[in-house]
Amino acid sequence: MSTSDEEFLKELLEDFKLEAAEHLQVIGDGLLELEKSADSGGNPTKTEEVFRVIHSMKGAARAVNLQRLEQLAMVLEGVFHEVKNKKLTLHPAMFDVLYPATDMLAALLGEIDKPLKSVSQNDFNLMIGRVQAIRNVKKGRAEQEPQPARVKSQPAAGESVPEPEPPEAQLRPQKPSPEKHTHQKKEEQEQRQPQTQQTPSEAGPEAQQDAAPADFSAVNTSGRGVSENETVRVPVTRLLEILNLAEEMITSRNILRWHADEFGESAAELARLRARLEEELTDNRQATLPDERVALRKTIQDLRSSAGRLARLSDELSAHQRRSGRNIDELVEHMRHTLLQPFSVLFAVVPRLVRDLSKSSGKEVEIAISGAETELDRRILEQLKDPLIHLIRNSVDHGIEPKAERKKAGKSEMGKLAVKVGKADGRKVQIVIEDDGAGINRERLLEAARKSGAVSKEALQEISTAEINRLIFASGVTTSRMITDVSGRGLGMAIVLEKITNMGGTIDVESEPGRGTRFVITLPQTLATFQGILVESASELFLMPAQAVSRAVRVDASRVKTVESKSVVQTGGHTVALVKLSAVLGLSSRERKPGGPMMTGLLLEREGRRLIFLVDTILGEHEGIVKPLGAMLRWVKHVEGACLMGDGRIVPVLRPSELFVSAAGLGLQVRSGDAATAEKPEQKTRVLVAEDSITIRNTMRNYLELAGCEVTTAFDGQDGFEKLMTGTFDVVVTDVEMPRMNGFELTAQIRKQSALQDLPVIIVTALETPDDRNRGMDAGANAYIVKSNFRESNLIDTIKRLV
After folding, report:
1. How many CA atoms lie within 13 A of 698 on its CB side?
2. What is d(CA 601, CA 554) in angstroms, rounded to the nearest whole number?
3. What angle do CA 29, 484, 457 make, to 5 degrees?
4. pLDDT confidence of residue 744
5. Strand-pair partners of 341
6. pLDDT at 494
7. Which of 232, 439, 472, 608 is the most exposed place for a label (fewest CB within 10 A)?
8. Distances in whole angstroms, Cα of residue 81 to Cα of each of 57, 76, 153
């Protein structure tokens, strides 16, 4: 294949990826709609739509020689062909295969151009077999011997769906020829022509439905006016490159501003010198000769003229700087708006996520989404995905009660979850995630916060309801009775808060016991330029991210107290520790000179923790572009990147999260309410492992011992219980299916012993149904880990959190 053909095929693959991503979205939405109507006979319109999209995807995959993607699309097409022709009736059980098949299509699409394939051939073959078996489903029962799917599409009335080839021909590997590519490319370009070139009456129904944004080749070159509806498809990477170049001009604007200020200051200094010279000449008139006075007056006149010219140039330069600054700001703002995308891009995964979570937890949850048309910066949408998914998981797993509990409380068995998006004041967007579940159990939350050390006993006496609710964002705090694969580890909400804060947003929580919980996220519509507080410490300049700073403070040295050898001060109703920024950064700092009782600092707050970093001087705010340190300096602590100042100096940008960690490492108190205590010497955690499989038992013992645990093993539940009666342990890890006494029975026996009621129990098992998990919770287990999702780090982290 020639170089031009390779480039052409590469271009076709990029077009295919864009088109296939749109097709997958339609398929996913269609499956959700069809699942809802499966019991009532299905939705013929939606079935037709999904069938057509899969058919188009199959043909496009064949054209670019993506054989596995084509084969899977073909067998899916066969299923919907029979549903469409009423030879097969949709049944809810089918969707347990159709959804994973759609996920595999997405995985196959994602592995294009990647050397390592994410879908093994064995998994692919199994999926093909599962989809083919659907065609033998009759009223929900599958015949034992599934037959290969043979697709023979018949176009419906009014359709122009091409007749698919026989399966033998469709599965035959095909090498795309340049002529075939050229023909398809022309067809694609014709389909992508703007709809303004044809009226609805001239274009057929398919042409109207399949119309897509125009490619560069379809740009209007006719001389007529360009319609507002015409679009050009541009790679996001290219837009980001242009935006980065535009944002680089902010640094140029800052440099120009600095030079304009310096020029103005120089002109003013020259004017002051001229005035001083005139004053000296007037005062010393008798001391100078006439000729000298004439020469001096001529010099003063020249200085006056030069000072006036410099003043005018300074004014013009300042005006030019202001105009350029406005133009740069407008350019950056318009470029950021090109990256705005509707929330529907992010919300596409939500209905499926809620459906899967509901099914795995044995609950019924109805999801309502509004405001999906609201636009947000694409970069924020990408960063928002994980926090949004976690909040939804949290609502389904923690918030909404099981059906029996809801019925007992007089609620509908089906829980309600709402996600609403809308515009807020000041170019901001507000996202509300609300459920009608049990609400936050504040007593359990306070107890969990106290145990984790997020709040002290003294602080509990003065804490408000709003502060109690915000404790769910503290690291290590969870109200879940059991740790599962979905939640209960006490990390997720802390990560949510951190990510929202890093995007320049805020998150608030409201909860009413028995009625539900409401999260309100406020985010900027576009990612703003970095804003930092410029400070001097130990004769060095640093930038502290403004979003991490609660406020600047002035501390009276006479109000500083010592609690357990730590310096603390009362501010805003809280006891907050003090630490020199230079000490945290490891810089040598001169001792404070006497006579200066007031100290300057920045109050930082993170996950409910407060700390004042003392600095020499706060110089002001700075707006600029943060440059990363690069691969050679990626291990430098406390520094996120660097900013170029207007005068050419390079100033490090600090990373607040690492400052808190280092402050804690110095033995300083970073929690509000009380002083720090010295870390206790690390002791080995004593673990009892009850497992009947000798292989798994020895494997667990090995990596737990490598993690620093002291491990005792038992060959079944009865043996484990006997060892518990004669030994002392910090945690129990048990399997379920064991002879003599299974894991559920062992857990129940442990809870019956008064001395062992608080002993953490972790169940590690292959049983993963909601009923099995509920049995584990009823027996009194603290964590339930499914072996199919098992990771060594998960078990070790769970032990650390429970002990």
Report:
1. 2
2. 6
3. 120
4. 92
5. 376
6. 80
7. 232
8. 14, 9, 6
| CA 611 and chain centroid, separation | 26
491: three-class secondary structure by DSSP: coil
Instruction: Report the share of the chain in percent with pLDDT over 70.
Output: 77
Distance of alpha carbon 13 from alpha carbon 51, whole angstroms: 22
Tokens of 536: 């001097």
Assign 435 a pLDDT band (cuts: 50, 70, 90): very high
3-class DSSP state of 381: helix
At residue 299, the pLDDT reads: 79
* CA pair distance 513, 49, nearest whole angstrom: 44
- DSSP secondary structure string, 736-798? SS-SSS-HHHHHHHHHHSGGGTT--EEEEES--SHHHHHHHHHHT-SEEEEGGG--HHHHHHH
Classify residue 440 by burial, with Cβ atoms within 10 Å: 0-12, 13-18, 19+: buried
- Residue among 790, 802, 730, 740 at smallest CA distance from 765: 790
C-alpha dist (Å) from residue 537 to 532, 541, 592 = 15, 6, 12
Model confidence at 164, pLDDT cuts 50, 70, 90, reads very low
Dihedral angle, C-alpha 708, 714, 720, 726, nearest 10 °: -70
Which residue would you say has higher pLDDT here, 340 or 279? 340
Give 766's pLDDT tier (boundaries 50, 70, 90): confident
What mean pLDDT is predicted for residues 110-115? 81
* Residue 145 CB burial class (10 angstroms; 0-12, 13-18, ≥19): exposed
Reported confidence tier of residue 564, pLDDT bands at 50, 70, 90:
low
Structure tokens at 285: 């008139």
> Would you give the DSSP letter of residue 564?
T
Q: Please list, in sequence order, all residues whose beta carbon lies within 8 angstroms of the beta carbon of residue 557, skipping any fewer than 6 positions away.
A: 597, 598, 599
Residue 505 CB: number of other CB atoms within 10 A?
A: 22
Q: What does the alpha-carbon distance between residue 672 and residue 470 come to, in Å, rounded to a whole number?
A: 14
Tokens of 263: 């020029």
Structure tokens at 728: 């002392």
> How far is 99 from 107, CA to CA, in rounded Å?
12
Structure-block tokens of residue 407: 């019925």
pLDDT in tens, 587-637: 875 544 444 578 899 998 876 678 899 999 999 888 888 888 877 787 788
- The closest of 137, 29, 38 to 79, measured between CA atoms, is 137
Strand 731-734 versus strand 761-765 pairing type: parallel
Global pTM?
A: 0.58
Alpha carbons 408 and 760: distance in angstroms, whole number = 30
pLDDT in tens, 44-92: 888 888 888 898 888 888 878 888 888 999 999 888 888 888 888 888 8
Q: Which DSSP state fits 614?
A: E
For every residue of 495-523, which 3-state class applies, written as one string?
A: HHHHHHHHCCCEEEEEEECCCEEEEEEEE
Residue 552: HSE in the Cβ half-sphere, 13 Å Cα cutoff: 17
User: Could you tell me the CA-to-CA distances from 481 to 56, 83, 659, 776, 794 in Å, in that order?
Assistant: 48, 44, 33, 11, 17
The widest CA-to-CA distance across the chain, in whole angstroms, is 123
Contacts 24+ apart (CB under 8 A), 488-494: 488/397, 488/783, 489/797, 489/798, 489/801, 490/448, 490/452, 490/801, 492/390, 492/393, 492/394, 493/390, 493/394, 494/607
Distance separating alpha carbons of residues 788 and 769, to the nearest angstrom: 12
> To which H or E segment does residue 70 belong?
helix 67-84
Pairing, β 530-537 against β 617-624? antiparallel
Residue keyed to tokens 């596995």: 68
Print the SS3 string covering 676-721: CCCCCCCCCCEEEEECCCHHHHHHHHHHHHHCCCEEEEECCHHHHH
